[in-house]
Amino acid sequence: MPSLPELVRDHTDLGPDDIAWLGLLQADWQIIADLSFADLVLWLPDRTGSGYWAVGQMRPTTGPTALVDDVVGSFVATGRRPLLDAALREGRIAREGDPEWRDDVPVRVEAIPVRRGERIIALVARNTNLHGVRTPSRLELSYLQTASELTQMIARGGFPYPGQRSDHADSPRVGDGFIRVDAGGTVAYASPNAMSVYRKLGLTTDLAGEDLASVTRQLVPPELRADEESISAALGGRLPRDTEIGNRQGTVIVRSIPLRPTGEHTGALILLRDVTDLRRRDRELVTKDATIREIHHRVKNNLQTVAALLRLQARRIGSASGREALEEAVRRVGAIAVVHETLSQTYEEEVEFDAVADQLLGLVRDVGNESAAPAGGVRLRRTGSFGTVGSDVATPLAMVLTEVLQNAMEHGFPAGRAGTIEVAATRTQTGLEVRVTDDGVGLPDGFDPEASSSLGLSIVRTLIAELGGTLAMAPRSDGAGTLVELTLP
Ligand SMILES: Nc1ncnc2c1ncn2[C@@H]1O[C@H](COP(=O)(O)OP(=O)(O)OP(=O)(O)O)[C@@H](O)[C@H]1O
Ligand SMILES: [Mg+2]
């Protein structure tokens, strides 16, 4: 199925601002579908005038769907849906008296032009399954009334409110709590769920007929609410706002959408959501996160202690090969510590590996100068980006990279030789590709990486195999030196 940008590019002349407008509309249209008890379909007129492309669809959570099948991606020709034609032509909401019958379901259809500035950029079809329509209660009447005001605003270009983003998961839905205030900020209707939310905050009286902002001020102590202006603006229904209020008993997200169906302010739709439990869990998660970070920090410290011990021991050892072995162990432990250090600084179990790689380059540069002592100065640099890597991959990848870098340093540049070691990382479609090149002396004659039994490459081979990747070592084709190529899925 083609994506929205593809459909837009292939069939319309809409610009980025139009797309952003439709994005804002779609961020909020669950509200309209729910208030209408209707399915919404977003249609884009084809630039040739030949018909309409369905680019979005939203089902109501408050009633039965009128569209069992998905329609996104489908096309209807001009003339097949007279209501769409009329709404586009006349720039106003088009509706019909008689329902359409679809698979034995009576469906009432309405076409709403989506206006941005002077132009109609799209159409929203509102499809109501009439089997779901009962004798309307106060709640249903309030919902429908508000839905109709919102659709009028869409047709006038007054909704969505620019700059307002609300598609985050916390955003209240109609069913979480619905309040309708009039132009003066007095509650005209509050849904049972909205009443429950206010009961949670400690309200004992009714809401209807009350000034919502002042009732809320009495319940919420000043120190626990957003600034005074936000309270009056949001709960008075004068400005589009998302705000969070609360007291010791509860926390509530408030979303206000002022209604101006004909340009005059007629009041506002206010949605509420009780997020008391959610916020409590958030706080717990933050504590847990901090604990995990603290543990990574301690692991890093412990690894550094181990490294320090090994280094002390290395200094006391008489035999050069023994000393070298211990120094290598110091470096390997150090590489793991770098990963834990990085993990102790993020909130995710994901690592920005570029930072790790750069630290490893530094590590190899320092230790390399100490032991193998290539006095000629070898430059190490990274190009490209590793991107983020899961913490389970980060440690083995860090170890592999250290071994490969260390080899290039140690074997490519024997004492005195100067040159460059480059780490080039590329994110491919299938994973990660890392190329380590050096312009050193090159691999020994007849060298076979598979056959080598030394520890460094054994570590590399084992870890790469565990990660499901591949390893290739070869002389550089473009000059002297060695190319080591790693791929990871
Ligand atoms: N970039 C390179 N340039 C030249 N030779 C290399 C390079 N990388 C690896 N080699 C060769 O591959 C051999 C195997 O490397 P490997 O890392 O397994 O062992 P090592 O470095 O000798 O010992 P260690 O176990 O301490 O790492 C090296 O001894 C070296 O001859
Ligand atoms: Mg080695």
Chemical compounds bound to the protein:
adenosine-5'-triphosphate, magnesium ion
Beta content: 15-25%
Number of H- or I-type helical stretches? 12
Largest sheet, described in full?
7 strands, antiparallel
Counted beta strands: 19
Radius of gyration: 32 Å
N-to-C span: 27 Å
What is the typical, i.e. mean, pLDDT?
A: 88
Low-confidence stretches: 369-374
Structural class: alpha+beta
State the helicity in percent bands: 40-55%
Apparent shape: elongated
In words, what does this structure look like?
This protein has helices at 4-11, 16-36, 82-90, 138-156, 192-200, 212-219, 228-235, 276-316, 320-343, 353-370, 391-412, 455-467, and strands at 39-45, 51-58, 75-77, 94-95, 100-102, 105-116, 119-129, 178-182, 187-190, 241-246, 251-259, 267-274, 350-352, 378-384, 388-390, 419-427, 432-438, 470-475, 482-488. With 489 residues, it is an alpha+beta fold. Strands 1, 2, 3, 4, 5, 6 and 7 form a seven-stranded antiparallel β-sheet that branches. A five-stranded antiparallel β-sheet has the order 9-8-12-11-10, with helices on both faces. A five-stranded mixed β-sheet has the order 14-16-17-19-18, covered by helices on one side. Strand 18 and strand 19 (482-488) form a beta hairpin. Helix 6 packs across helix 7, helix 9 runs antiparallel to helix 10 (353-370) and helix 9 packs antiparallel against helix 11. The longest helix is centred in the middle third of the chain and has 41 residues, at 276-316. It binds adenosine-5'-triphosphate and magnesium ion. Adenosine-5'-triphosphate (ATP) binds at residues 328, 403, 407-408, 410-412, 438, 440, 442-444, 452, 454-457, 482.
